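Q: Could you write out the predicted structure for this multi-component system? I'm mainly interested in how the pieces pack against one another.
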Amino acid sequence: GDKVKQSPSALSLQEGTNSALRCNFSIAATTVQWFLQNPRGSLMNLFYLVPGTKENGRLKSAFDSKESYSTLHIRDAQLEDSGTYFCAAEGRGSALGRLHFGAGTQLIVIP
Amino acid sequence: EAAVTQSPRSKVAVTGGKVTLSCHQTNNHDYMYWYRQDTGHGLRLIHYSYVADSTEKGDIPDGYKASRPSQENFSLILELASLSQTAVYFCASSPGQGAFAEQFFGPGTRLTVL
């Protein structure tokens, strides 16, 4: 089965509203990365997490290794936040920093 | 200046032909990776390398070879391209593993096999 499950798979947000994306892990994740793939296809690094939280502007992410999940909170959504959000986890004992990716959450921000 | 570059950015290949995708990084990273992304899906690991002249198989290595001639360069080779290998291919580099495992991606190569 999938080692990393993302939810929801798709989401529409009104501009200015808030939302949360989630990743659940069936592996013992040690680090988590969140990426945004923009409509042109480029992958942009958002967060790199060991257990704990990080915040950057309107984005905040948390990683709980004991409960095996990570969240990405988007505050005051803007049109440029549209794209596909991926989380990826490195598993305990994984060789050489191998990442396991989720299938992504496609976000559309509506004016 | 982009730290991970890929060439070509897009390519159309014929079934049975040989395709080489190239990746170059200026991050001074030891670890490099090749992923493929199929429409509407996440990334899957094909091959990776932690040192020059050595490569490792990822989760879906069948039909692909890799070459790491130097720290900066990592190539993905499709000896006999097939229709099922139509996808977008991403290269990434990382300084290490564990607490140093943050990966940085190139812009991707869109490969279409006809």
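A: Regarding packing and overall arrangement: DSSP finds no helices and eleven strands in chain A.
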